[in-house]
From TrEMBL:
<keyword id="KW-0704">Schiff base</keyword>
<dbReference type="Pfam" id="PF01791">
    <property type="entry name" value="DeoC"/>
</dbReference>
<dbReference type="InterPro" id="IPR050456">
    <property type="entry name" value="DeoC/FbaB_aldolase"/>
</dbReference>
<feature type="active site" description="Schiff-base intermediate with dihydroxyacetone-P">
    <location>
        <position position="211"/>
    </location>
</feature>
<dbReference type="InterPro" id="IPR002915">
    <property type="entry name" value="DeoC/FbaB/LacD_aldolase"/>
</dbReference>
<dbReference type="GO" id="GO:0004332">
    <property type="term" value="F:fructose-bisphosphate aldolase activity"/>
</dbReference>
<dbReference type="InterPro" id="IPR041720">
    <property type="entry name" value="FbaB-like"/>
</dbReference>
<feature type="active site" description="Proton donor">
    <location>
        <position position="179"/>
    </location>
</feature>
<protein>
    <recommendedName>
        <fullName>fructose-bisphosphate aldolase</fullName>
        <ecNumber>4.1.2.13</ecNumber>
    </recommendedName>
</protein>
<keyword id="KW-0456">Lyase</keyword>
<comment type="similarity">
    <text>Belongs to the DeoC/FbaB aldolase family. FbaB subfamily.</text>
</comment>
<dbReference type="InterPro" id="IPR013785">
    <property type="entry name" value="Aldolase_TIM"/>
</dbReference>
Amino acid sequence: MMPKITRDQVKVPVDVLVDAREAYIDNYMAATRGTGRLMLFACDQKVEHMNGDFYGEGIDIADLDPEHLFKIADQGVCGVMAGQRGLIARYAADYPDVNYLVKMNSKTNLVKTSQDDPYSGQLHDLEAVLAMREAGVNIVGLGYTLYLGSEYESTMLSEAGQLIAEAHAQGLIVVLWIYPRGKAVGDREKAPETIAGAAGVALCLGADFVKVNPPVASDGKTSAENLAVASAAAGRTGLVCAGGSTVDAPVFLSQLHDQIHIGNAVGNATGRNIHQRSLDEAVRLTKAISAITLADASVEEAVKVFDGEADFSL
């Protein structure tokens, strides 16, 4: 049964201006499909990982065409599609029904951490996004990536904090991508205490949702059990897990189910696992993921959706 919420159950942060409260609630309900849970289709990798995530062995040839992303979001079942402002600007007119989240910063993977700690600077100001919203693009929120532990951490913290304040004042929701990374972090990027710390930072910055990598299993606890600690640390900031590289759909769906029902995540943020497939397969996977995320389906029920033996819609 789908876990529905009502508008008065949305906890509106007090930094949302009074005249923007209804817009914030509209955007929150749209992004979560009225459930309070987030199914985020992450499409920002054309900068982050360049063309390596869209063309090559094991990747369906359809993924080479950027419009493939928009077709999936339009035909599948997603809460929101995340991508850079320019990407959205080029295609949104043809896909007006998709909920968009504009990724405000990005960097390529050409400069490795061994060469320099990561820094992802803001690409444009909020006014450029608001202008698109005024022009009719269905923008419900913003996204920002923060590399905790980088020597440039303070700059990104400042940018993210200011961005969240400005976005909330305009009624937009904000999702932070937080990846601890840099020489000071070393091999502790996915350590349970590091992931939980990242979740708490997102809360203190005022984010509505935070996207983190699943923590590693440790000390007799599974990854999902360790994730529950991070979810608790996030408080009223909803925690969602990154999807990672492409794996078999049943494996991915099982991991997602555990992240939500053991790890207390409030959804998922998935990119490659979806868009590297053919359009038909990708659409079916969005429906299977949403069946678990938005409707509490079992893994078995979700696999049937992916296999085409059952359908899922909202």
